[in-house]
Specification:
heterotrimer, A mainly alpha (338), B mainly alpha (271), C alpha/beta (251), A: 338 residues, mainly alpha, MetI-like fold, 14 helices, disordered N terminus, disordered C terminus, B: 271 residues, elongated
C-alpha cells in the first residue's frame, strides 16, 4: 500500500535549489532590462534639476562614470559581477551604498509588515472560526458585511480617513514618521507612530484571509466525518476545533506563506501616506526616478521573498497534509520534469 | 445558505452609473474650471460638496470623475479578462510541459514587483490619458485570474461528462460551448466583477500616488491626490466625499460579485 | 425491557419552500441484543429516522410529534448537551461511506483513541494505545499495530469500514445504528462485514439497528425486519415471517 518516492530527498532539495537560482537569475535579468528600457533619465536621480544645466559633454561624462553608456548586457554583466561579491553599487539618489540605504530602513518595514502579518494570521483564524461557528446567524452576517466593507476600502483612503479622524480631528495619534522629530526615541513613541499604519496594513488584508478560513471551515463541516466525530460524543465546538480546523490548517499555513511577501510588499501605500521610512517608499521612489541600483536590490528582495513564499507553501502543503503527501508521491512517478 | 439577490447594491450602482453618464443634465458647473476665488469652500448651497484647493466644484467633479473611474474599471477588466482566459485556457488545455512553462512565466511575472511593472508600462505607454492607464492596469492584473481559469479548465477537462461528450464525438467547440462554458460562466463573471473592482482600486491608488492620472484629468483617484493639502487645511469634504463614492461603488460591486459566485455550500452543516 | 422505543415519531424538514415530512408517524421498539433491519428504498426516510433518534439532523429538520424512550427514559426533548452524554456510550453509528466518515487528516488510531479518551479521560498513553489495538483486533483488522498509524486514504474500503466500526464500539454502546454500512463495499467485503456485525453482537451484546435497501443483506443479519415506504413504517415482524410473506407476494 505505502508507496515511497523513488528519488532520495537530497535530490529534491537540489532540484528546488536549482529552480530557485534560476528564478532569481531570470528575475534579475527581467528587472534589469525593464528598468533600463523604461524611458527616463537616471541622471535626474543623481543630479536632480542640475542635469538641465549640464552640457552634453558633461552629461556623457557623468553617464560614463556611472557606467550607463554601455549596452544593457554589458551593464548587466558588470552589475552581476559586483553583486556576486556583495557590491550592489550606489544609490543615485542617496549617493550612498545601496546596502547602507536599505539597512537603515529595512527594520521599519519588517516591524510594520511582520507585526501586521502576525496580527492578520491570528485574527483571520479567530474571525474565520467565529463566523463558521455561527454560520448564517446574525453575528456571522454582520461580521461578513463589515468584513466585506473593510475589504472594499482602498488602503490609501483608509490611511487618509484614519489620519483625518485620529490625527486631525481627535489629535490622539501622530500622522507621519516612525518617530517624533527631536523627541526622545522611546518605546511608547514608536508604538504611537506604528498604530495607524499597522491598522491600515491589517485591515487591508484581514477580511480576505478570514473569509477564506470561514469558507474552508464551512466546507469541512459538510463532511461525513463530522457526524462520526459527533457520534463519538464530541460537542459541535470540539469537532470544529479538533477536526475541521485541523484539516483547514495545512492549506491555511501554505496560504499564509504566500501571503507573507504580499503583506510585506503591500506596506508601501501605508508607508507613503504616513511618510513612514521603510522599504516600500524606497521601492516607489527608485522605480519612479530610475535609481537603478537601488531598484534592483529592492526588486530582488521582494521577488526572492515571493519565490521563497511559494516554495515554502508548496513544501508545507506536501509535508503537513497527509493527503497531499500521497498525491505527490503518486504524481512524481507520473510526471517528471517541471 | 440561500443567497439573496443584492437588490440595493444593484440600485445604488445603477444610480451612480446613471449619474455619471447623465451628469451633463444636472451637474451644471464645469469640473475643470478653477474658480480660484472660491477655493477650499466647505459644502454649501452653491457648492453642494464644496470646492477643492484649486477652486473646482467637487459635485461636478464627482460625476465627471466617476465616468473616468468606471470607464477605466471596465476597460482594464476587458483587457485583463481576455488575457487571463486566453493564457489560462491554453495552459489548462496544453500538454503538461507547456502548461508548466506558461505557469512558470506567469509566476515570474507575478514575482516582479507590481509597482515596477506599472511604472515601467506607464513610462513606455505614457499614461497621461485614461485609456493608456486602463491598458497598464489591464496588463498588470491578469496573472492571478489566469491561474484560476487554468485550475478551472483542468478540473473540468477531467470530468466524466466532458469525457462522455467526447466519446459521443463532440468536437472541441461543441464541448466548450455546451459543457465547459456553462460551468465556467459563474466563476468567470465573479472574477470579472472583482476585476472591475480591483481595476478601480488600482486606478485610484495609482492616481493618488501620482503615477496614474494627473491632477487635471479628473477621476475619483486623482481628486484624492490633493488630500495632503486637504489634511492640512482640515477640508474633510475633499477626502470624505470622493472616498465615500469610491467605497460605495466598490462595496456594491463586491456584493454583486459575491452573488454571482458559484454557491459552494449547498448541503447543510453537520455541526 | 426494550432498549429503545419510538412512538408515533414524525420528522419534518422546514425549507423556505415549505414543509416536507420525511418520517411519518413511525413506531417501533428494539429489544436488547437484537438486530433490527429497517428496509426500504432510497429516500424513504430510513436514514432520517435514525439521525432523528440521535439528533444529528441539520437545523432545518425537527421532530414534529412523537416520543423516543431509551431504556425506559424519555429522551425526546434532550438538548444537545444531554445527547452528547448519550452518544458514544448509549448510541453509536456506522456510516455508509467509510472513506468520508473518517477524518482524512488524522490517523485512524488517533480517531479511535479520541473516542476512547472522551469516555475515560484519565487513561494513560500506554493503556490508550493498547485499547486502540484491542479494538482494531476486535474488528478483525490485520496488523492492527501498523494500521493504527495509517491514514484513511491508505486503507481499502473494507478496512476503513472496520475502523469506523471500531470507533463506534470504543465506548461500548447499547445501541448501534448502521446506516447502509455495506453499500459502498464490494460484494465479497460486504459479506465479511456482515459476518463481523453478527459476531460483534454475540461478543458485546449490543442491539443493532441496521439500515439497508438490499433484501439479501437484510436476510443475512436480521432478527426482525421493519419495512418503510415514503416515510411510513408499514410492516414490522420477525425476519422469517416477513421474508416468507414477500416471497409469497412475489409469486
Amino acid at each position: 500500500m505505502r508507496r515511497r518516492s523513488l528519488r532520495k530527498p537530497y535530490i529534491t532539495i537540489i532540484e528546488e535549489l536549482i529552480k530557485f537560482a534560476l528564478s532569481v537569475f531570470l528575475l534579475s535579468v527581467l528587472v534589469f532590462t525593464l528598468a533600463r528600457l523604461a524611458p527616463g533619465d537616471p541622471l535626474y536621480a543623481y543630479y536632480g534639476e542640475r542635469v538641465e544645466k549640464m552640457s552634453g559633454q558633461e552629461q556623457e561624462a557623468a553617464r560614463e562614470r556611472l557606467g550607463l553608456d554601455k549596452p544593457i548586457p554589458v551593464q548587466y554583466m558588470r552589475w552581476a559581477k559586483g553583486a556576486a561579491h556583495g557590491d550592489f553599487g550606489i544609490s543615485y539618489q542617496y549617493k550612498r551604498d545601496v546596502k547602507e540605504v536599505i539597512a537603515g530602513r529595512i527594520g521599519n518595514t519588517l516591524l510594520l509588515g511582520g507585526l501586521g502579518f502576525v496580527m492578520i494570521f491570528i485574527l483571520a483564524l479567530f474571525l474565520g472560526l467565529f463566523c463558521a461557528w455561527r454560520e448564517d446567524k446574525r453575528a456571522d452576517r454582520v461580521v461578513c458585511r463589515i468584513g466585506t466593507l473593510t475589504s472594499c476600502i482602498p488602503d490609501f483612503w483608509l490611511s487618509l480617513l484614519l489620519i483625518l479622524v485620529f490625527s486631525v480631528w481627535l489629535g490622539w495619534l501622530p500622522s507621519s514618521g516612525a518617530y517624533s522629530v527631536g523627541a526622545e526615541k522611546g518605546f511608547a513613541d514608536r508604538v504611537r507612530h506604528l498604530i495607524l499604519p499597522l491598522a491600515v496594513v491589517v485591515l487591508g488584508h484581514l477580511w480576505y484571509y478570514a473569509y477564506l478560513v470561514r469558507n474552508r471551515l464551512l466546507e469541512e463541516t459538510r463532511a461525513d466525518y463530522v457526524l462520526l466525530a459527533r457520534m463519538k460524543g464530541l460537542s459541535g465546538k470540539q469537532v470544529l476545533y479538533r477536526h475541521c480546523l485541523r484539516n483547514v490548517m495545512p492549506s491555511y499555513l501554505s496560504m499564509m506563506a504566500i501571503a507573507f511577501p504580499h503583506i510585506l510588499g503591500g506596506t508601501y501605500v501605508a508607508e507613503t501616506v504616513f511618510s513612514y521610512p521603510g522599504i516600500g517608499t524606497l521601492a516607489y521612489e527608485s522605480a519612479r526616478y530610475q535609481d537603478y541600483n537601488l531598484l534592483m536590490v529592492v526588486s530582488l528582495m521582494t521577488g526572492i521573498l515571493v519565490i521563497l513564499g511559494n516554495m515554502f507553501a508548496k513544501i508545507l502543503n506536501e509535508r503537513i497534509d497527509p493527503r497531499m503527501r500521497l498525491k505527490r508521491e503518486a504524481q512524481k512517478e507520473e510526471v517528471r520534469g517541471f | 445558505m440561500k443567497k439573496r439577490f443584492p437588490r440595493l447594491s444593484l440600485i445604488i450602482l445603477a444610480a451612480i452609473a446613471a449619474g455619471c453618464l447623465a451628469c451633463g443634465c444636472f451637474a451644471t458647473k464645469d469640473p475643470a474650471y478653477m474658480d480660484l476665488a472660491n477655493s477650499n469652500v466647505a459644502p454649501c448651497r452653491t457648492f453642494l460638496f464644496g470646492t477643492d484647493a484649486m477652486g473646482r466644484d467637487i459635485f461636478a467633479m464627482i460625476w465627471y470623475g466617476g465616468r473616468i473611474s468606471l470607464l477605466i474599471g471596465f476597460l482594464a477588466t476587458l483587457i485583463s479578462t481576455a488575457i487571463a482566459v486566453l493564457v489560462g485556457s491554453i495552459s489548462g488545455y496544453a500538454p503538461p510541459w507547456a502548461d508548466g512553462a506558461v505557469m512558470r512565466i506567469t509566476d515570474l511575472v507575478l514575482s516582479v514587483p507590481g509597482l515596477l511593472l506599472t511604472v515601467f508600462l506607464q513610462a513606455v505607454l505614457g499614461g497621461e490619458s485614461c485609456y493608456r492607464l486602463a491598458v497598464v492596469i489591464g496588463l498588470t492584473s491578469w496573472m492571478s485570474m489566469a491561474k484560476v481559469v487554468r485550475t478551472e479548465v483542468l478540473q473540468l477537462k477531467n470530468t466524466d461528462y466532458v469525457l462522455a461528450a467526447r466519446c459521443l464525438g463532440g468536437g472541441f467547440f461543441h464541448i466548450l460551448c455546451r459543457h465547459l462554458a456553462p460551468n465556467f460562466v459563474a466563476s468567470l463573471l465573479f472574477m470579472a466583477v472583482m476585476n472591475v473592482r480591483n481595476a478601480i482600486v488600482a486606478e485610484s491608488t495609482l492616481s493618488f500616488m501620482g503615477i496614474g492620472l494627473p491632477v487635471e484629468v479628473v477621476s475619483w483617484g486623482s481628486m484624492l491626490s490633493l488630500s495632503e493639502n486637504a489634511l492640512l487645511s482640515r477640508s474633510w469634504w475633499m477626502i470624505l466625499i470622493p472616498g465615500a463614492f469610491l467605497v460605495t461603488t466598490l462595496f456594491c460591486l463586491t456584493n454583486l460579485g459575491n452573488y454571482m459566485r458559484k454557491s459552494v455550500n449547498k448541503r447543510h452543516s453537520n455541526l | 425491557m426494550d432498549v429503545l422505543t419510538v412512538k408515533n415519531l414524525s420528522v419534518s424538514f422546514y425549507r423556505p419552500t415549505g414543509e416536507i415530512e420525511a418520517v411519518k408517524n413511525v413506531s417501533f421498539s428494539l429489544r436488547p441484543g437484537e438486530i433490527l433491519v429497517i428496509m426500504g428504498d432510497t429516500g424513504c426516510g430510513k436514514s432520517v429516522l435514525c439521525k432523528s433518534i440521535v439528533k444529528l439532523l441539520p437545523d432545518i429538520a425537527r421532530i414534529k410529534t412523537g416520543q423516543i424512550f431509551f431504556q425506559g427514559k424519555e429522551i425526546t426533548d434532550y438538548t444537545e448537551k444531554g445527547m452528547q452524554e448519550l452518544r458514544g456510550t448509549s448510541f453509536s453509528m456506522v456510516f455508509q461511506n467509510p472513506m468520508t466518515a473518517l477524518n482524512p487528516c488524522m490517523s485512524v488510531g488517533a480517531q479511535i483513541a479520541e473516542a476512547v479518551r472522551l469516555r475515560c479521560p484519565e487513561i494513560s498513553r500506554r493503556e490508550l494505545r493498547n485499547r486502540v489495538i484491542e479494538l482494531l483486533e476486535l474488528v478483525e483488522l490485520d496488523c492492527p499495530k501498523e494500521r493504527a498509524g495509517q491514514y484513511p486514504f491508505q486503507l481499502s474500503g473494507g478496512m476503513a469500514q472496520r475502523c469506523v466500526i471500531a470507533t463506534a464500539l470504543a465506548a461500548n454502546p447499547a445501541v448501534l445504528f448502521a446506516d447502509e454500512p455495506t453499500t459502498s463495499l464490494d460484494t465479497e467485503v460486504q459479506a465479511q462485514i456482515l459476518d463481523l456485525f453478527l459476531e460483534l453482537r454475540e461478543k458485546m451484546g449490543m442491539a443493532v439497528i441496521f439500515i439497508t435497501h438490499n433484501p439479501k443483506v437484510a436476510a443475512r443479519v436480521a432478527d426482525r425486519v421493519a419495512l418503510m415506504r415514503a416515510g411510513e413504517l408499514y410492516r414490522i415482524g420477525d425476519a422469517e415471517e416477513i421474508f416468507e410473506e414477500t416471497i409469497h407476494n412475489h409469486h
